[in-house]
Amino acid sequence: MKLFTHNMLTSKMIRNVQVGYPLKLCASEVKITPTDFRPGFLSKVIPKIDWTVLVEAVNSVGNTEPLPPALAEDYDKNDDFLRKAHHALFEIEIEVITGEMECPETGRKFPIQNGVPNMLVNEDEV
Fold first, then answer.
1. Residue 98 or 110, more confident
2. CATH no. for residue 96?
3. 72: which of 51, 55, 104, 122 is 20 to 30 A away, CA to CA?
């Protein structure tokens, strides 16, 4: 699972959960997979993500290259910033052998196995 995917996931489908975001991430293994750097595409993706949540996720998986705490004003023209964002969003892949994401409101845990989060809920939870 890429951190880009994590940035979009919520547990709002659980009964009585108002926000369910961001899910707390606990990863046991992280893999870096180089991908082509496409600054034009990245400039269009960045406004759609929650930067603070991405920074927290990068910190939680133990990435050695931290992200700037705030979104740069000129991010679309800042090559260094775009390369760091690209690395965080598209090159860091979480491969969880035994891990989970946790709803911040209910504590409900969603397992991640073989890089795939299981966001299915029980009938009594909806």
1. 110
2. 2.20.25.10
3. 104
